[in-house]
Amino acid sequence: MHVVRIFQENSSNDLIKLPLLVSEKIDMWGFGVLAFAMCSGYNLFSVDCYENLTDASNFAESCNWDKRVAKEISREKVEDLLVQDLLL
Fold first, then answer.
1. 35, 44, 69, 79 - which has most CB atoms within 10 Å?
2. Which helix (H) or strand (E) holds 6?
């Protein structure tokens, strides 16, 4: 079991810490976020100077992303077509 920060709707719209069972899928997701940042020069989510999320609603919206949304973000932020393909 790991303790992770997750978004959960509440009155303050904050990230909270909860124990959560995770699998290797979270590692693949994290690798994708890192690869996007390395290839585009942008963070996928709004973060402060300590790499903490600054807008929990932005992160919550990512749960509803589909291939179309991912393609739009990739095309907007990454110039190289081969890298766009790699990220998708």
1. 44
2. strand 2-7
